[in-house]
Write a structure and sequence with these properties.
Layout lengths: L14 H6 L5 H81 L3 H13 L3 E4 L4 E5 H4 L9 H14 L8 E7 L8 H6 L3 H18 L7 E5 L12 H7 L1 E7 L13 H4 L2
Parallel strand pairs: 3-4
Antiparallel strand pairs: 1-2, 2-5, 3-5
Amino acid sequence: MSAVKCSFFVPAALAPLLAGCLFVPKTSYNEIHSENRVLAEQNRAQETEIGNLRDHARVLEDRLMQTEQQLAIYSEQNGRDRRQLARYEEEHDALYRQYQALARSAYLPPSTGEQLLALSRRYPSLQFDPATGLSKLDTDVLFDSGEAELKPGAREMLADLARVLNAPEAKNLKVMVVGHTDAQAIGKKPVREKFADNFQLSTARALTVAQILHRCGLPERQIGVAGFGSCQPVAPNDTAQNRHKNRRVEIFVMSPEVPVIGWTDSIPGVYRR
C-alpha cells in the first residue's frame, strides 16, 4: 500500500512570525492572569488608602490652622491679662503701703505698751497684745455669773490700768471697752429682770468697766463702750471651757489717728460737711 503524503502550505509572510512565537500552557496563563487581577486590586486599595490619607491630611491642616489662630488669640489675651495683673499688683502695693501707714499710726507709745505688758504679767487674767493694743480681761474674774457688778478684787486691777492710761504720753489715746457673753440664754428670773438678753448684759458689763476707768481719772472723751452679746465668739459654745473664753471684756487702746465709727474727731468727713 502506498503511503499518503500530506503537505501544508505556509505562506511566506507568516513563516517568520511562527518561527518566533512561544506557546504558553493554559495553566500558566491562568496563574498569570490571577496574579495580575490581585495586583490590580491591591493597586486600587492603595489608591483608596492614599486618598483617605490625603483627606485626613487636609483635616489635620485645617485643625492646625485653627489651632494657630486660637493660639494667637490666647497670646493676645495673655498679654492683656499680664498687663491687668501688673495693674492689680500696683494697686495691691499702693493699698499695702496705706495699710502700713495706718498700722504705724495705730502703734501705742513705747512706754505705754511696756507698762501694759508689765501689767498683764502682774495680772494673769489680763492679756495684752502689743501689736494691736488689745487688752482682754477674763470676765469671770471681773463679774459673778449673770451680774454686772464688779468683784472686789477687780477694782485694783482696773485702777492700775487707769494709772497707765492716765500717763501724759497716753492722754490722747482712745479706749474702747467691749463686752461679750457666751451663747447661753439668761436663765435665772432675777437676772432676766435686770437684763432681758445677752446684749444688755454685755453692754452693762462694758459700761461698768468704763465707769471704773473714768472714776480712776480717765477722761470720758477718751472712752467708748459697746456690747456684742454672744454674736462675736472666739470659740464654739459647746463646752464650759469654750464658753468661758467667750465671756470676756475687751479694752482696745488705740492712737488718736485710728478711725472709730461714732468717734466724730476720727472721721470728721462723716459728721462735718
